[in-house]
Amino acid sequence: MTDRSFPIDRRALMLSGTATAAAALLGRSSAVTAPLAPHARSVGTVPPSASASVAPASFDPTLLGKALAALDRHAGAIAHRDRIAIVDFSAPSSEARLHFLDVIKGERSSLLVAHGAGSDPGHTGFLQRFSNDFGSNASSEGAFLTDDYYVGKHGRSQRLAGLDPTNDNARGRAIVIHSAWYANADILAAHGKLGRSQGCFAVGEHELDRVFGFLGEGRLLYAAKA
């Protein structure tokens, strides 16, 4: 992961406060650590992030505001508000655009994440469109709830529940978090962009334990364009 301090009023975000939290800025920078989710190895055994040298996407406060509004809107469904993830699909796949926000510590870590082939038919490296349709192979926008873990065709994976009309087919479409070779940082050296998923949030093969450990179950993952 690429680590950065991130600007936020942590008490405001914990208690609700959307616009207030988005307005306040800057904390300290250090690595994020978190309890590990089931099926994940100890964080201490995970090799240094392959994304460490990848530039993080600039973090737009308006996107944070949208995510915090979603956190309030779906408060009844989201059990844990201490950590959230935001995917800024305005940025290309060559930038670390999956941002993990630790509300307690006021820290941000970022890493690479692939988008769906149906969102970028020409494989430009930029997401062109969202879709919630079955068979679209596209990424969906909106608020997702992190759910349970399982082992499937992509190995260890985490289910996501779509909470908005723009992504409420996520479970039926099997939109999940998983790792993939085409989301590894070394793909950028050869192609300048990541490969594409079928709409899932695919991260690098050495990043999955960190993702599972940070998010766990019952937290918000918000995906949109700024």
How would you describe the overall organization of this protein?
Strand 5 (142-152) and strand 6 (155-162) form a beta hairpin. Helices cover 19% and strands 23% of the residues. The model is unreliable at 9-50 (pLDDT under 50). It starts with a strand and ends with a strand. The protein has a nine-stranded mixed beta sheet. With 226 residues, the chain is α+β, with helices and mostly antiparallel strands. The chain contains six helices and nine strands; from the N terminus they run E-H-H-H-E-E-E-E-E-H-E-H-E-H-E.
Keywords, separated by commas or semicolons:
about 230 residues; alpha+beta; 6 helices; nine-stranded mixed β-sheet; globular
Strand order of the largest sheet: 1-4-3-2-9-5-6-7-8
Mean pLDDT across all amino acids: 83
Number of alpha- plus pi-helical segments: 6
How far apart, in Å, are the first and last alpha carbons? Answer: 21 Å
The portion of residues forming beta strands comes to: 15-25%
Rg to the nearest angstrom? Answer: 16 Å
Largest beta-sheet characterization: 9 strands, mixed
Shape: globular
Poorly predicted sequence stretches spanning 5 or more consecutive residues: 9-50
Task: Give the topology string: H per helix, E per strand.
Answer: EHHHEEEEEHEHEHE
Q: Tell me how many strands there are.
A: 9
Question: What fraction, in percent, of the residue positions are helical?
Answer: 10-25%
Class per helix and strand makeup: alpha+beta
Task: Please give the structural blueprint.
Layout: E1 2-5, H1 10-15, H2 18-23, H3 61-73, E2 83-88, E3 98-102, E4 107-111, E5 142-152, E6 155-162, H4 170-173, E7 176-179, H5 186-191, E8 201-203, H6 208-215, E9 220-224
